[in-house]
Amino acid sequence: MELHIAETREDLVERMARAAAEWIGAHPGSLVCLAAGDTPLPVYARLVALQAEGRVDLASVFYAGLDEWVGLGPADAGSCLQVMRDAFYDPAGIPADRRRVFDGLADPATECRAMERWIEAHGGIRFTLLGIGMNGHVGFNEPGAPDGEGCLVVALDDITQTVGVKYFDRERTLRQGVTVGLRSLSKAEIVFLMATGERKADIVGRMLSGDPAVPASRLLPHPGLRIYLDREAAGRL
Ligand code: GLP
Asked: Is 235 inside any structural domain?
């Protein structure tokens, strides 16, 4: 495991974007899994800028969406699909046949099987960039959720439902998520986990102490885990 702590968020974003661009450049045709959520958005913007500077071809790899709110579709503000399409896939010019994201309006179990087939058909996820939720979730691998193979339909816990309000333009009652499971993510060679801001300091501290109630702790033994924090998120280490 590598732990990177940057003095500023800008420095953190720059380091992550360059490391991700370097990996993508060296692994054309590989499958990459990117988290939605607010935290990694500046990294995606920087990756798009690096591509515009001719330093990386982001369409040289394939993409799998990490998770989705069951009940939200492409037209819904705050769906992972909408966020990733507008923040990354479209500005980066990723062709539709190089990406697969969950459709939160479709049958969730069927979506899981379709994502598993996509992951399998592209040789498994080799690189993933993750955030961490306020309850320690990764994707929608919630505390207490089963640690099964492939993709899962998960009951969202109270913290996720409460925190999730920040993404939406109106009141939503969302009880389930679909997600790539932790085991599939753990098969990646490189796992970036990013956290910024003081509000993440507690959960990051719990994760790094190996708290078994924190799903992200299960990534700790992964040899390719690279945790990127700003000074505030590292405040309880
Ligand atoms: C969200 C998503 C995760 C995300 C995490 C952190 O609910 N399900 O994929 O990484 O929680 O989100 P944020 O970066 O907005 O804090």
From this structure: no
The string of pLDDT tens digits covering residues 169-179 is 999 989 999 99
Supply the pLDDT for residue 27: 98
The domain total for the chain is 1
Domain assignment present for 236:
no
Q: Is residue 24 part of a domain?
A: yes
DSSP per position, the chain: -EEEEESSHHHHHHHHHHHHHHHHHHSTT-EEEE--SSTTHHHHHHHHHHHHTTS--GGGSEEEE-EEETT--TTSTT-HHHHHIIIIIHHHT--GGGEE---TTS-HHHHHHHHHHHHHHTTSEEEEEE---TTS-BTTB-TT----SSEEEEEPPHHHHHHHGGG-SS-----EEEEE-HHHHHTSSEEEEEE-SGGGHHHHHHHHTT-TTSGGGGGTT-TTEEEEEETTTTTT-
Q: Residue 197 belongs to what domain range?
A: 2-230
Tell whether ligand 1 has an atom less than 6 A from the beta carbon of residue 22: no
Catalytic center residues: 67, 135, 137, 142
CA of 138 to the centre of ligand 1 (A): 7
Cβ of 70 closer than 6 Å to ligand 1, yes or no, is: no
The model's pTM is: 0.97
CATH code (residue 104)? 3.40.50.1360
C-alpha of residue 167 to centroid of ligand 1, in Å: 10
Average pLDDT over residues 120-124: 98
The model's pLDDT over 159-172, given as tens digits with 9 standing for 90+, comes to 999 999 899 999 99
Within a domain: 82: yes
